[in-house]
Design brief:
single chain; mainly beta; elongated; 9-stranded antiparallel sheet; 1 helix; two-stranded antiparallel ribbon
Amino acid sequence: LTLTSSLHAYQREGKSYFQPTLNPNVNDERDNRVVTRLRLDYAFAEDHNLFMQYFTNREADFTNVDGEIITSMGNFEIQDNWTLGFNNLSYGGNIRYVNFRLTPPDPNVLYNDPNAREILWGVFVQDKMSFGDFLDVTLGIKAETWTLIDDEPELSPSLRIAVKPSERLRVWGAASRSVTTPGFIQTNLELTV
């Protein structure tokens, strides 16, 4: 049994200079960030282990031009790993919440919802099958939902094959369907030009 924790915090204050004309603007800026992490690893046996992890991240960015961006996030994940004969089976899931609070400093930028809470959750299963030192085949699938987009899960299957015909040569290939997880600004922003 192993328990690991960490805390990271910083704060920055300074000035930024913006000179679109002959009269430059001097902005006071400050930002801070706090990141925490707690992880538990447990080995049931030599061929079976489990980990659980929770982390948080809170960032705040302020300037004297009436802009602020505050983002807080929490993430919990769990993964179970088994070795059964030639199968290395892994399965698990995660859930993440993200809170946004945005006040844009630019009047040409409009956020559709500047104060939002979104949820991302996912589950996965993967099996790596080892046939001696010659061939490894890995099959997996992940289902993930990001409420910023919609409530329907996206499926991402994958297949990886590695062949080792000799000690000095390994040939591998992969096929998968990946899904991009867009950020808040990519889906919730209107820019007036």
